[in-house]
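Appendix B. Extra example for self-study. Work through it before the problem class; the solution is given directly after the inputs so you can check yourself.
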Amino acid sequence: MPAFPKKWLAVLLVLAVAIPLLQPVLPDVVSNYRLFLVSTMIIAAIAVLGLNLLTGFNGQISLGHGAFYAVGAYTAAILMDQVEVPYWATVPAAAVVCFIVGYLFGLPALKLEGHYLALATFALALAVPQILKYKWLEDLTGGVQGIVLLKPEAPFGLPLSEDQWLYYFCLVVMVILYWAAANMLNSRSGRAMMAIRDQPMAASTMGIDLALYKTVTFGISAAYTGIAGALSASAISFVAPDSFTIFLSIKFLIGLVVGGVGSLAGSVVGGIFYVLVDNSAQSLALFVKDDLGLPFDLSAYTVFGVLLVALMYLMPMGIVGGVYLAVRKLRSHG
Amino acid sequence: MKTNRRSFLGGVSTAAVLAASGTAFAQKKYDNGATDKEIKIGHTNPYSGPASSYGVIGKAETAYWKAVNERGGINGRMINFITKDDGYNPSKTVEVVRELVEQDKVLGLFNTLGTPTNTAIHKYMNQKKVPQLFVATGASKWGQPKKFPWTMGYQPDYHTEAVIYAKHILANIKDAKIGVLMQNDDYGKDYWEGFKEGLGKEIGRVVKHVTYETTDPTVDSQVIQLKDSGANVFFNISIPKFAAQAIRKAADIGWKPAQYLNNVSSSVASTLKPAGFENSQGIITALWLKDPTDKQWDNDPEMKTWRAWMDKNMPGANQADGNYIYAYSVSFLIEHTLKACGDVLTHENLMKQAASIKKLRVPLLLPGILVSTSATDFYPVQSVQLARFKGETWSLFGDIMSAEGS
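Solution. Structure tokens for the complete assembly:
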């Protein structure tokens, strides 16, 4: 898949930095709620990015990244709640914890390929909410009640609202992680990762240590998703086992496939997509029923599903792949 | 003479209230979410996901407002009831509630469902000073007017209910040895905490405490463990599916303890019938709503009105589902509260009116249970009555019991 053109990236970044500052001029358009929503999109994008490193670039399937997201969120929440660590310090802490957890999980996962790995990770995602409720951990995790947190405020007396600040914080974290991932993939290690995905046997013949690369990739992928979890703990200011059900893992996978497997830009698009569609599916279902007057009492998930099927049919390589193909077609005609 | 004096005082205070509201009615006052034509009320409910069986509550409430609007609305204003799906996921609840409060700018939230979901928005709503009224959860933390003046519960809380069972056991069963089956989540814990509090220093009477997860296929092994512990009292903290399994299993293995069943599973159709009426005789529970599947209410005027309402506004809905009764009763209460607000539709006045309900009869509550709130009492319904299962129906006994307005 092609790299994202640099000048467009720069334009997007300038817009991303500038738009929230318009809040005093356009309070209704750039509302705190919308900034919060964009922050959740950024967080989703980081989580999908993590999954993409593993599945898109290394060829290992995971149906359980919600588990690492939960571990990241709980690491952040427990640190803030029990030891009063500032929110920004919880992000690297969650990354380290999730890297270790991911690495350790990657060890037995080495023996599992394809569907079997998918099943093993699926089991992990199912187990985590139960583990969080476990009575020996209750003092730390708050059990089923979860942990209520404070929302981070802008530091140094910056005249920013909580949501503006959170948005910038998430944006900076994402830009750093995106840059790091792009560089890594462009390096020897990145090429090794992709070689393992495409031809494991050829890769090992060329002297690539399959076990090492696979486990470390698992760790890095988990760390990315864990960071997203830590950010979400700050954004939502509350963690509870019910936030991390199996649906979360499936949503990451949807974001990955819709955005574009094996594309960094696709991860961002995928993250944005699933928050957007998740939020508008219900209104769309209502629109079909009330405004179009069709006699369907559709559930939000039905609408979500129909959209997904349509999208996969029209753009089998994800949104980014589809757009790229369309642009190429146009150019070759012109 | 005493009564005369009291009625005289009552008369004076009524006059004062009328005078006060008279001046209030003279001038209209609106916050976000209210105009001359419309009142916006927000709501969240799981229409999808593992708890989607509660979705019928949101559907019934939507139908309720539609019916109210067809009658001409409240004081001439139409109710714009905006209900959102949160899938019982607290992160999602925060998202949709922020949308309701900041984008849709609702006057208040009503009957948002779930303990973890409401916990996630508890602080936010109180920071924003937007009412979070009559939340649909039985946790005991929703009535703290000092700390959270913008949040109010509705139903009797699980904690108090469990205290009542514990006291009843201690008073009535000699040499009680208690076995507890509990769902391992916030709802189960709340009952368990209340039960422990009710037993006090007699806590040693609990000889066995077993839990299950909602994902378990059955609770058979748990019930066998309880029997083997030698318990002669069984406190059943489980949702209907598992409650029925446990009652049936106990009968199958010949365990005949005194059984206490939590109100959550008091539905005749969804618990006791599948458990088998012959296995359910003598079970004790605490009730506060009328059960639509209990024959004793068949000729009850409120029940008849409700059935007619359901036939008209929700044709085809399963009238055996107690959630419809619940939704109807709580909708009645918010309708009453909004009416009481008159033309002063501010966040503050909505909260004030919600906290000034005096002995209101809400349809479908058990006879004798009235709703009262005050500036220090944010528990609208806090009375229950014990009932024993007899034949195919609950037979109420004893007095209506109220918790302290703590």
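Self-check: The CA atoms of residues 175 and 403 of chain B lie 26 Å apart. If your reasoning did not lead you there, revisit section 3.
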